[in-house]
Amino acid sequence: MTDTVSQPRLLLRRLHSVMGGDGDAQERLDRVVRVIAQNMVAEVCSVYLARAGGVLELFSTEGLKEEAVHLTRLQVGEGLVGLVAERGLPLNLSEAPKHPRFAYRPETGEDMYHSFLGVPILRHGKVSGVLVVQNVAARQYMPEEVEALQTISMVLAELVSSGDLVNVDELSEDATALGQSITLTGQALVSGIAAGVAVFSKPQIRITKTIADSVREERQRLEDSMAQMRSQLDEMLEHPDLAHGGEHREILETYKLFAYDRGWQDKMRDAVASGLTAEAAVERVQQENRARMAKIRDPYLRERILDFEDLAGRLIRIIQGETIDARQQLTEDSVLVARSIGPAELMDFDRRYLKAVALEEGSSTAHVTIIARAMGIPVMGQIPGLLTHVDPGDEIVVDSAHDHVYVRPNEEVMEGYREAVKIQEQLFAEYAAELNLPAETLDGERVELLMNAGLLADLPSLDTTGAEGIGLFRTEFQFMVSPALPRVDEQTKVYSAVLDAAGDKPVVFRTLDIGGDKPVPFLPREPEENPAMGWRAIRVALERPALLRYQLRALLYAASGRSLSVMFPMIAEVAELKKCKVILDKELERLKKFDKVPPREIKVGCMLEVPSLSWQLDSLLTEVDFLSIGTNDLMQFFFACDRSNPKMADRYDMLAPSALSFLHMIISACDEANVPVTLCGEMGGRAVEAMALVALGLKKISVSPSSIGNVKRLLRSVNMNQLRSYLVEHMRSPDHSIRDSLILFAKDHGIKI
Ligand code: PEP
Ligand code: MG
User: Residue 445, Cβ neighbours under 10 Å: how many?
Assistant: First the structure.
């Protein structure tokens, strides 16, 4: 072991000369395996290589029974070797046979070996095999040993990629076998519908040479390339697509700072000093980052590591002398396909041809989502199996309306897609025609249609959709993408920008709804059994009043001389709201003390998203200027049904008679008390639901910008009085839902649902 750690360069050289020596590929592999076993002081060293059909075959071993070679085969995901391949990450165990995934193969005789260290052999980012060392003694391998084995596996990948051991075509045959049309399901992160050929961001990187001829020259290559990368990033930030300010700019500025990160640079320099080429050194450090990332749950830190992934890929391409201008590579409509990508990667593609992004991971607050939203590119994320099913050049349709991605769509799907695009274009034309018309029913009932927002990048939608204001501004996004608690002046800047952009249109700011399933980097987090019902939103704010105080201060500063509407999330009882109001009053006092100009008027409201509050409406409605019904949470608690569990997504319907009666009770109470009430959950953005809600008496709805056109078009086609009597009749039904009856009514009465 001492050899491997202290003299990595010697070992790499030795491996390289063995790999390039006499004999066929199998003989050379056998010799390599012996050298590794010797250097790692391991009783066993084995190499498993990927074959067609997701099979890992034992290709060579030192220590296991000879007869197992080419006989022992495991599926990806089967046994410990399969687990390493499945995760693409090292596995270090002192008691391998006790691991639940241990799969004993009698022909290998491996049950006597207690400790196990397996690392993936990665080729172009894909697992092409697994390298394993084992020892009889039960011991945990040291981090340096894990690193050494990872470096060795990179060198081994060179031998594998020669194609002499496993024909490269064999592995791609697998993908062609999958050549049929398939439909994958995901989550719409930026809405839209688009089609194009699949382009991958990662396969451009091909490391063919891992061992340096001259450390000095490699160091120079690394330094020169780092300098070049930094100047390219400066240029990128000048891009016209990013001209207007917003959090996307901040994200890219921070990303740029990482290019100057000393820790990262030093690690790469060390890797070069150990004998790797510059590109192998970058990749080596990145492998370590990936392994770390797999363990990190904190979404903010995960995003930061993605930034490094993006930077590393960029740096390797520069080292290899590729022009970064991947723009020229797109010559037709394309869909960018990846597991997850960093924020700057989008900028490498020609916006004219980049029609959509499909990601295996991704989330609504992922950096790339924020940038894509600012650039108007549809994004689908959380698509399991995407990378297994898509090959570069495959035709792909991204359909966010149905949360689907169609891969190699057949003619029928393409027909449907073309039809959907045509319908969408017609709809957009209709929305545009109604842009400046009021959301008014045929019998003259006026509904105020507002939009939900959370990013500065959302604000241009105020004009493009004709929204009458912002009914819900979720302030938490700024906190979720920031490494530290944003300072009062930083918060003020964002809130001022929102008010500036809204002009005369009203804006309702909701104070922080963080904690639970919306973690922020600067608050300690303890695992919770039920985060949605746990330490979140106002519960955090009242326990850490400084957080709320500073936010209210920033809101007051931002609204100086203007109108301010502020509301509090997750209020479960009137007493909580009163505490919030006391804090707001103190901040107002403070404002006066410092002679600052207060807002022209202040309206205080709260979210109704916890059912208990509905039984305190009498006293609540004397305390608030307005109420906002958050059906996303309210309904999950009403039905005791987790809103983020896909298995439960269709279990209960918000158009259930019980849910509608409940909402009716709330809306009527607000009407009687003369307190304006808005609904700001996703429910309001869906056509049939919106129709039912207005029939229940709702006069204000706040929906995502992409739903405004549709809801307005619908409302302008309804005769509300007719619908109202129909609804009242059906709300007494004992059925699971009255959706079908409402759809029937809409069809019979020419309502545009
Ligand atoms: C809601 O719960 O309906 C809501 C609008 O809040 P959020 O989706 O941010 O929890
Ligand atoms: Mg909520």
Answer: 18
Going from the Cα of 534 to the center of ligand 2, the distance in angstroms, rounded, reads: 13
The number of the ligand 1 atom at minimal distance from the alpha carbon of 609 is 2
CA of 267 to the centre of ligand 2 (A): 43
Give the C-alpha separation, 722 to 319, whole Å.
70
* Separation in Å, CA 438 to CA 119, 392, 442, 466, 505: 62, 46, 11, 9, 14
Mean pLDDT in runs of 10 for the chain (753 residues)?
55 82 88 92 94 88 94 90 86 91 88 92 78 94 88 84 72 46 86 90 70 93 93 81 71 82 89 92 85 66 76 88 61 90 79 91 79 86 84 89 87 87 88 94 97 88 94 89 84 95 97 81 78 91 94 97 97 98 97 94 98 98 98 95 78 95 98 98 93 97 92 95 92 94 94 91
Pick the atom of ligand 1 nearest to 682's CA.
3
Reported as type and span, the H/E element at residue 577 is helix 574-593
What's the Rg (C-alpha) of the chain?
Answer: 30
As a whole number of angstroms, the distance between CA 246 and CA 497 comes to 9
Give the type of residue at 11: L
Determine the Cα–Cα distance for residues 320 and 57; give it in Å rounded to an integer.
33
**Percentage with pLDDT > 70 across the chain:** 93
Report how far ligand 2's centroid is from the alpha carbon of 507 (Å): 18
pTM score: 0.69
The tokens describing 751, both together, are 């309502």
